[in-house]
Design brief:
By secondary structure, this protein is α+β, with helices and mostly antiparallel strands. The protein has one domain: Double Stranded RNA Binding Domain. Helix content is 42%, strand content 33%. The chain is built from two helices and four strands; from the N terminus they run βαβββα. A four-stranded mixed β-sheet has the order 1-2-3-4, with helices on one face. Helix 1 links the parallel strand 1 and strand 2.
């Protein structure tokens, strides 16, 4: 799977990218029809402490899936976004099996 990672007002972090690739590879092993992923790491100004945003857009046949999470650090944001995508992919798989 091709992965495009962008940082918006955030500093590039190799350890974070490694965590992301590991999580995305897990999804790809389970759902081999994933084409590519576009990931945005953003730092935003919020009154609460959830200033770190991870947005992931997955391209899959027939549509795109999107997940976004605001958390207290990027690692938690990645985990939350991946969890959301896993739920969406599982629903898509169930629909594919029905047809």
């Amino acid at each position: 799977m091709k992965t495009d990672i962008r940082y918006v007002e955030a500093v590039q972090n190799d350890a974070l990218e490694e965590q992301l690739h590991t999580k995305l590879e897990g999804l790809e092993r389970k759902y081999e029809w994933i084409i590519d992923a576009h990931v945005f790491f953003k730092t935003e100004k919020h009154p609460n402490e959830e200033n770190y945003v991870c947005e992931i857009k997955l391209s899959v046949p027939g549509q795109a899936m999107f997940a976004s999470a605001n958390e207290i650090n990027f690692n938690k944001a990645v985990n939350s976004s991946i969890h959301q995508l896993g739920t969406q992919l599982e629903k898509m798989k169930a629909k594919m099996i029905e047809h």
